[in-house]
Amino acid sequence: MCNGCVHKQYPDRGNTCLEDGSYLMNYQGCANCHQRDFVLISNKSTEDEDGEEIVTYDHVCKNCEHVIARHEYTFSVVDEYQEYTMLCLLCGKAEDSISVLPDDPRQSSLF
């Protein structure tokens, strides 16, 4: 993918995992055509492997179709938690885990 199109490679996004869209704050502009315009999504695919949903797509320049970054988002249920991950040169890296129970057992142990 293209390091010249982003301000920072794989920025830490904490627990913000994007299944769709682009993190435009990190978009510097297209290193190929030198324009800063919309970022399009292409080659989007969704796979389900052993209970894990994997969404992948390319971020591409609207003007010259230069591939800026490859985005990967995963979702799975492990024990009693929904697990999310994101890895993308443009959007960053992130992980999140949310309890499927009404009261998160991890939060109860803090009190």
Automatic annotation (TrEMBL):
Superkingdom per UniProt: Eukaryota
Keywords: Activator, Developmental protein, Metal-binding, Transcription, Transcription regulation, Zinc
Gene Ontology molecular function: zinc ion binding
Pfam families for this protein: Churchill
GO biological process: fibroblast growth factor receptor signaling pathway; positive regulation of DNA-templated transcription
Family of the protein in this entry: Belongs to the Churchill family.
Protein name per the record: Protein Churchill
Native species: Neogobius melanostomus (round goby)
